[in-house]
Amino acid sequence: MTTIAIVAPALAPGDAVGNDLLHMAQLFRGRGHAVGLFATHVGAVTAPCHPIARARAFLGSNPSAVLLYHHSIECAAGIDLIQQVRCRRVVRYHNVTPAHFYDGMNEACAADCRQGREQVAALVQAQCDLYLSDSTYNQDELLALGVPPERCAVVPPFHLVERLESTAPDPAVVDACADGKTNLLFVGRLAPNKGHAALIDAFAVYHHHYDRRSRLLLVGKEDDRLESYAASLRERVRHNSVEGSVTFTAAPTDAVLKAYYASADVFVIASEHEGFCVPLVEAMALGVVVAGYGGTAISETLGSAGVLWDDRSAWLLAESVACLQREPSVYAELQERGRDHYREHFTNERIEERFLAALRGLFQSRDRKGAA
């Protein structure tokens, strides 16, 4: 049995980092290990989670213990812990949103991102045993900062897609969307790196020039700290004359989220920064074809299972959606590619295999060093 402390800046329900962390904890416990969860900020989760300050005592002085730290935002306590402990250390790198997206909108958010990106250098300098990245895009950042390739591995994040697949869609949402309109869907929190403004512009082109009976569903949590961003998006809706055809909504339950996916004709994405993008995996698994703009980790995650452009042209995205609507054979081909891509790379079973293989190499390496 190994003592394993899993540490993150925050643990919140429905958060991609939190889902990844909780699945890891469940996997380790199922294999007989002693696991403790530690975070600075904790939301309404059922799993016991403690302040990061208590992680060091949990690990004790055992050099065979494991600290697994998830980095996605500023976390001075996590960096201090990495630098202080003398056990095996693993960094899970989810990427950090560049601060410039928040400049002028919320200085506290911008500072958290700026400091979080600066702390990546400290994680590299700590020369940890293993660096696990969500994507090759994330890993390339670590390699550029000097992490040896032999200490790196790419393992996609664990997720709740299987649970979503088995959930019945909320009938009220399905009924509301089943009015003959074309439903374009994006799932992601209301944050300035997510490209909502570009989606609204592209939807306006599609709505006015291709399909007047269409709507854009923007599904994601709103952050009270980003009221000015949300207000700017609603003003953009008015400016583009698509009031009544753009819906901002959260998905408080799996059933509601499943209903939006079940009702969607096309999943659209214009995000400018993603370290992986779990909603793309959800869309592929649930048979919703993706159209949008590539870049960062988006193209890597989606592969050839959708339509992505480097040119961030609203007309190009609108025409792509129209093509998918008028060419059912193309849609069906991409739909099948998406399901195949998901089954081959992104089921939790596949991710578990890659995760355990990466850790097995770490443990075997450490055992050999100890024997030497």
Topology of helices and strands:
Elements: E1 3-11, H1 16-30, E2 34-42, H2 55-59, E3 66-71, H3 76-84, E4 88-93, H4 107-125, E5 130-133, H5 136-144, E6 152-154, H6 161-165, H7 171-177, E7 182-187, H8 196-209, E8 214-219, H9 227-239, E9 246-249, H10 254-263, E10 266-269, H11 278-285, E11 290-293, H12 298-302, E12 306-309, H13 314-326, H14 328-345, H15 348-371
Parallel strand pairs: 1-2, 1-3, 3-4, 4-5, 5-6, 7-8, 7-10, 8-9, 10-11, 11-12
Helix pairs in contact: 7-10, 8-9, 8-13, 11-14
What is the chain-wise order of helices and strands? EHEHEHEHEHEHHEHEHEHEHEHEHHH
Low-confidence stretches: 366-372
Largest sheet: 6 strands, parallel
Strand content: 15-25%
Strand order of the largest sheet: 2-1-3-4-5-6
Report the principal-axis shape. globular
Task: Please report the number of helical segments.
Answer: 15
- The percent of residues in helical segments reads 40-55%
Average pLDDT taken over every residue: 95
Number of E-type strands: 12
What does this structure look like?
It contains 15 helices and twelve strands. It is α/β, with parallel strands linked by helices and 372 residues long. The strands form two sheets. The protein has a six-stranded parallel β-sheet with strand order 2-1-3-4-5-6, with helices on both faces. Helix 7 (171-177) packs parallel to helix 10, helix 8 crosses helix 13 (314-326) and helix 11 packs across helix 14 (328-345). The longest helix is centred in the C-terminal third of the chain and has 24 residues, at 348-371. It is globular and about 65 Å long.
